[in-house]
Amino acid sequence: MYLPLFILSLLVSLYPASAGDFCVADLNLPDGPAGYSCKSPAKVTADDFVYHGLAAAGNTSNLIKAAVTPAFSAQFPGVNGLGISIARLDIAVGGVIPMHTHPGGSEILVVIQGQICAGFVSSANSVYIKTLNRGDVMVFPQGLLHFQINSGKSPAIAFVSFSDPSPGLQITDFALFANSLPTEIVTTTTFLDKATVKKLKGVLGGTN
Amino acid sequence: MYLPLFILSLLVSLYPASAGDFCVADLNLPDGPAGYSCKSPAKVTADDFVYHGLAAAGNTSNLIKAAVTPAFSAQFPGVNGLGISIARLDIAVGGVIPMHTHPGGSEILVVIQGQICAGFVSSANSVYIKTLNRGDVMVFPQGLLHFQINSGKSPAIAFVSFSDPSPGLQITDFALFANSLPTEIVTTTTFLDKATVKKLKGVLGGTN
Amino acid sequence: MYLPLFILSLLVSLYPASAGDFCVADLNLPDGPAGYSCKSPAKVTADDFVYHGLAAAGNTSNLIKAAVTPAFSAQFPGVNGLGISIARLDIAVGGVIPMHTHPGGSEILVVIQGQICAGFVSSANSVYIKTLNRGDVMVFPQGLLHFQINSGKSPAIAFVSFSDPSPGLQITDFALFANSLPTEIVTTTTFLDKATVKKLKGVLGGTN
Amino acid sequence: MYLPLFILSLLVSLYPASAGDFCVADLNLPDGPAGYSCKSPAKVTADDFVYHGLAAAGNTSNLIKAAVTPAFSAQFPGVNGLGISIARLDIAVGGVIPMHTHPGGSEILVVIQGQICAGFVSSANSVYIKTLNRGDVMVFPQGLLHFQINSGKSPAIAFVSFSDPSPGLQITDFALFANSLPTEIVTTTTFLDKATVKKLKGVLGGTN
Amino acid sequence: MYLPLFILSLLVSLYPASAGDFCVADLNLPDGPAGYSCKSPAKVTADDFVYHGLAAAGNTSNLIKAAVTPAFSAQFPGVNGLGISIARLDIAVGGVIPMHTHPGGSEILVVIQGQICAGFVSSANSVYIKTLNRGDVMVFPQGLLHFQINSGKSPAIAFVSFSDPSPGLQITDFALFANSLPTEIVTTTTFLDKATVKKLKGVLGGTN
Amino acid sequence: MYLPLFILSLLVSLYPASAGDFCVADLNLPDGPAGYSCKSPAKVTADDFVYHGLAAAGNTSNLIKAAVTPAFSAQFPGVNGLGISIARLDIAVGGVIPMHTHPGGSEILVVIQGQICAGFVSSANSVYIKTLNRGDVMVFPQGLLHFQINSGKSPAIAFVSFSDPSPGLQITDFALFANSLPTEIVTTTTFLDKATVKKLKGVLGGTN
């Protein structure tokens, strides 16, 4: 029971190429509330769905001794519109990913190497902390403050995936001290004293 | 051209009462990812859709001189499942709603009385601050750090609505200092020194 | 433990400015099913998130003695993509916001001044009506017919927020009588007699 | 290259039966904002996904000479959670489906027999009307007022599908006249005169 | 109580034409994750919401003796953004719609003529099959393998609606054998032998 | 500027514990379209957000020489409602994850060890294949057929995350041959000959 090609092809000839299957971001077109505009399907190749940028370790030669390397829509256009993205965490001995949130999505972390102490705080101010070893998985609910600390004696690596192709990242200290947010507003809204704010602004390059 | 009741009623007799129109929360039943279970439509009355709890000013006789009075699903079961909720802000002279986020939704604020200086910080650490007067509206995108300060000489009142019936509220200082989050973890993940952390933990009732 | 700016900045250098945090509408670009295209983040300022158009009372010198002043995406581009919007209702003594629906979202109303009798009708034709005073809140589920009447002896003001940045507004009488919908179709689909339809079409500027 | 059953089965033994594939409604359990609770997958059979109730014509022996027969979640539990539902329209000669909305979803109609004049009105009060013949398809955007009239000389049949398993149905005349909505409120919010309202309330069984 | 047109029109003058009501696809503009860009509302007419392409039978003069005629966004731009679409199935005697999935949405089928044996398989590999007659409805949950066979003695016609304006269609045999997917990969990932794969590739026009 | 605990606590006393932050699945309660019911927040601990089941390699001592170990809602209740989940792939030398789909979500894969040849086929039957090495990432759009083959000379490990806490898994061969789907229906809907179907049913434990 064989089907001649020339006839069967009629069945699918009305379907446009891949419409709706995926929407590889064209970063040169306008974006919208749901993400970037789509690259023409005709120009999409397998390379659009693969990202090599997480293969190498991030540079942890900094004082937090850590690096976050994202593969979000802006770096990895293939995830645009697919509700998922990923990033690599490298945390050297003594390193830390400071307290932060992702405004747009939940995060799931798997430890690839080393030991990580991770935790988050809920709206009710409850604290959820665990020490994770190789292969352990932890999930961080959307928008809540969380952190990751290398609690071991060797460099730690983790991959973190997000329920959003562009989840955002707001590091609390950077939001408070690494910009022009006036010192008076910081002290008023955080209960920190002026000297502390000024000191951290100095370190993080903040002004005002 | 009149329709006898007994006949016309056949047209709608197959429709269950209000199914899908609304889902007033029954707080005694289990909740799920989309919200609380629904109260039986037969028991729902107009009272379920009205909330009187925002009519009176919140108590601002505290050191932040401010109060947030929510009408979220847990207080106002009528909003369950409807993608919207509201709260009242009372900010006395010199008062402040400290730096916080809502993990689950965007916020729109309208000033009813007084003057409020409000702002938020983006993932890119950009700062967006404005002084708002009576009738002014400001929107705060989902999950980003923001604050409201009474910048006037009289008590300020505002109503804030959210794109979620249970948007959550995470006040940064409470998340960091008002619980059992270990001091060492706070210092490591915020760059604050131990003395500052200990002091704020003392004030806010935190331990460890 | 301080972090030199030049090193720490490496951590965030890979993140594009604010991508995903917000999407202020650029009304000159095409819109899509999820809303308008985004203004370039580099051009976004605090002003984009603030709207002054609701500070002044709407003009109620008309026969319904009421005004709806919206701050939807088209008027207030900052709400685009954020799942929220707001409007101001001014209802003079004896005024009314006629029976209407919002096809795209639920509504939450808070009375700022005066007294309002408000209500909605469910799919099951059940009626939910309440008289609301200053500070009272009422929620109207998505897509259902509802109304607001000034039931007091002084002008009433309310703010209404929506679970959609562009919720739409369909006033039943305008939909039926203020356009070219043929009289015969109106009578056939509403059971109203021809004279009534013709009369209202005349008043509301409808034709056919 | 064959795989012994006893070994291969290990691969899938960890997967719970059908979790997430579907959620046939158990109408005896509480419902929530996203729909009804799920029947145990172990008890689900093919019969749960099939509905025979649209095979027979609805009874059009009424004055509107029409019938709507729904296969929504409440009638056809298999569609619960699947974002789709269907209904059958029977419209006898001279019959009409009166002006109505579906608060929860968009509608797509296909004419199976006869001729139907259908239309909807937008928020901008623009009118979109077409006469449809057998096999013609028309789409009605979510929440907008629309109608269907048999414009032919033989009975008309159509199937209408919805983007929601429980889209609701609000017939404007029923919402206004077939319940206890006070006459004074109807006249005030619709501009109809008292006599017209009283007359239609009489016909449709409304009170007050 | 009549309202002069020139005054009442003030009430709605602030609302942009139809914004948010619908988004008829402009196939010449870029698409995004949520669908195509919108045609200007000013240029939209009733014709945009009607599709005649399903009125005629599809051509079943092929070896599967069947045809799928879609009215998705690409063919019927009016459904763009509305969460719904439709297609027509024509299955001649002995014909079959081969095993396939729709990656983007659930499907509801109604038999218009003839008899169809339809079924789907769940993630748990459970089989749900039913023989459907005229007027019977069956629902197929999103993303699961399913099929339709003419099990009667006359041509069968069905309409299938989807919970997505662009649900996609992946016919398993076409995905495996009608393209350049290497024979070795097909045998490795399907357990089929090389001869079978080569034979089907020959029939369906596949290479490698 | 310190705040006495007893006063500040008033500010948050109205907020229910963590409502809306997360919804750890209680597998003993009914599930719904959006996932499982929530475990009481008071009983939730850090352990609910951590999963150890992916730390050990899956058993690849089978003929496909591969194992999929999921951490979906049913195994890892902490991800319920969070829009994310994860699984571990172990593929021995010569092993393969057969052609399959996830009906409910997109997948992102990162190679931890070894070399994997992975690919997917679009609705347009286009083929997207790449050979991935350690640290490489590939994304597979929702609902499309895809596979992973160990193309290296050592065991391969990968973590795959999904945009859904319960994405489902439908292995094409299992769906076709490992159940009671009648042989005649398989041959009719796949173009495979009866002998091939019978042989694979024998291997995979299918009947009929």
TrEMBL record, chains A, B, C, D, E, F:
Cellular component annotations (GO), alphabetically ordered: apoplast
Family annotation (PANTHER family): GERMIN-LIKE PROTEIN SUBFAMILY 3 MEMBER 3 (PTHR31238)
Residues reported in the UniProt entry to bind oxalate: 102, 107
GO molecular function: manganese ion binding
Name of a matching Pfam family: Cupin_1
Keyword NAD: no
Family indicated by similarity: Belongs to the germin family.
Family annotation (Gene3D superfamilies): Jelly Rolls
Entry binding sites for Mn(2+): 100, 102, 107, 146
Signal peptide from the UniProt entry: 1-19
Keywords: Apoplast, Disulfide bond, Manganese, Metal-binding, Secreted, Signal
Lineage: Eukaryota, Viridiplantae, Streptophyta, Embryophyta, Tracheophyta
Start and end residues of each Cupin type-1 domain: 52-198
Cross-referenced PROSITE patterns: GERMIN
Disulfide links within the chain: 23-38
Intracellular or extracellular location(s): Secreted, Extracellular space, Apoplast
Name this protein carries in UniProt: Germin-like protein
SUPFAM superfamilies on file: RmlC-like cupins (SSF51182)
